[in-house]
Amino acid sequence: MNHRYIAHFDSTKLPRIDTDFLVIGSGSAGLRAAIEANQHGDVVLVTKSVVKESNTRYAQGGIAVAMSEDDAIDFHVEDTLKAGVGFCDEVAVQTMVEEGIQRVSELIEWGANFDKDGNELSFTMEAAHQRRRIVHSGDATGWETANVLSNQLIKQERVRVIEHAFAVDLMTQDDACYGAVVLIDNNLHCIFAKAVILATGGLGRIYQCTSNPDVATGDGFAAAWRAGCKMMDMEFVQFHPTTLFLVDAPHFLISEAVRGEGGILINIRGERFMARYDEKEELAPRDVVSRAILNEMQLTGFPCVYLDITHRSPDFIRNRFPTIYQTCKHHGIDITTDLIPVRSGAHFMMGGVRTNLNAETNIRGLYACGEVACTGVHGANRLASNSLLECIVFGMRAGKAATEYAKKVKVDDYAKIKIHSEAPPQGVLSNEPFDVQSVREMIREVMWDNIGILRGGNELKTASDILSEIVERRLWNRVEEFELQNILDIAKLIAEAATLRTESRGAHYRTDFPERDDTHWQKHIVLCRNEQPEIVE
Ligand SMILES: Cc1cc2nc3c(=O)[nH]c(=O)nc-3n(C[C@H](O)[C@H](O)[C@H](O)COP(=O)(O)OP(=O)(O)OC[C@H]3O[C@@H](n4cnc5c(N)ncnc54)[C@H](O)[C@@H]3O)c2cc1C
Hints:
Blueprint: E1 16-24, H1 28-37, E2 43-46, H2 55-58, E3 63-64, H3 73-83, H4 90-109, E4 116-117, E5 120-121, E6 123-124, E7 134-135, H5 141-155, E8 159-162, E9 165-173, E10 176-184, E11 187-198, H6 219-227, E12 231-232, E13 237-244, H7 256-260, E14 264-266, H8 286-300, E15 305-308, H9 314-320, H10 322-330, E16 340-349, E17 352-354, E18 366-368, E19 373-374, H11 387-408, H12 411-415, H13 436-450, H14 457-469, H15 479-500, H16 518-521, E20 524-527, E21 534-536
Parallel strand pairs: 1-2, 1-11, 2-8, 11-18, 17-19
Antiparallel strand pairs: 3-7, 4-5, 6-7, 9-10, 10-11, 12-17, 12-20, 13-16, 14-15, 15-16, 20-21
Helix pairs in contact: 1-5, 1-11, 3-4, 4-11, 6-15, 13-14, 13-15, 14-15
The protein binds flavin-adenine dinucleotide.
């Protein structure tokens, strides 16, 4: 296998940690995988910030699960397939929806405090669901889920959690993965493991406007790609319609559940506009609402639209959306009386490291789960609140499959492995001053302007040209520098896939090819380093 590491290392010279399972990432997928793997061996879990900092922690709306009396597995499957615009892997969807019931029940057994109506679970509504099926914990479901899973994990023995540990590259040899190179306390370490579970979450931070926290720089996508993983559906990035739009405030997410509970969208002229775009109005799929908002902003020449929930009672709003209420209040907006200024932001990655139902990648011993993986469950557009469900279902499956694989690995097989990076090539800029922060901001702007909610051939060409002019140094040794290389690697992958797909489908909207084209494009684009793109059924 042809390696391309960004860290310069020699495993015989760096501090070495040995374990049975290395889990990278402490979101819902990584935590659930670690709990499972830990039944069968030692686990080292590394995470680049603190354990509870992840996309998971910020999830507001809830977890979609077919558990209410008037719901059924078939309905949930049907809604997921419909939102995915004919592009989901049906078996993966069926697996997620069926096993999701067990996984959510398990969270409840482990102490998850989901909201109830009397003694029964309370289910809320979100866009493109035909039933109220979202279990939630106020508007802080992710926080609750992360707490329950991390408490469950630390109860177990033989788990070592290393915070502020940045996984730089996967160590691979002969199409097998043996661990990762990890920056801990500013020093590179080699963590060797019989099986590695990649659960590094999303990549929203490669866009200028995003709902994602700082950690979501897509490191896992880039490391997997450099290691030779097959990357599928990279053109499908979901933009959430409603993030808070205020100067000097973060793009805080205003959950879909606000529209689910009756919130309406109006433009600066005070017109309710969604009926002009979709019969489901505010509850149309996310891509439709995001494009409608963008169009209204262009038509009115105003940089945002407004979300209005003031017709619900103040008590209901404060109780149902305490986090949103408090956060907006902090920024001077009382959502019980004021309109909320919103616009779209990059939110979720449907594509990623191609895996099968057992989270296996094309590299032996490497498993991927959660947002970094592409199981095919989301197709061209994720159904609201299906992501946490995917994380706990396929996180558990990854842990299980990794344990089966590890049983077959002889200790000697990996104890003797020595891996080192190629001597880093001297890039043109290698000795010149390089402002990491400004290059990073420039890439984020290029992505937003050219490969965002709308993309056209000209914009894609502009973006690809700019990205290819950024000379790679590959002599990085700080987190910011590693992140920059990751952002650049993924930006190029998204640009390549978005250029190849000459149709519009779900979250991928080409202004020059506005129609869906099933004849030519009912197919997935798979990118792998040093190989021609594959177009697969
Ligand atoms: C604001 C917001 C609201 C959302 N609301 C919902 C919702 O209501 N329902 C729903 O289903 N989904 C929701 N989502 C999506 C969902 O939260 C995520 O898709 C899901 O939590 C992803 O989980 P994960 O475990 O794959 O990744 P994450 O939860 O993002 O965890 C990734 C982990 O990997 C770590 N990591 C990353 N790179 C490295 C590295 N190089 N080295 C070491 N560690 C690394 C991170 O620090 C983090 O701990 C929301 C997302 C956001 C941002």
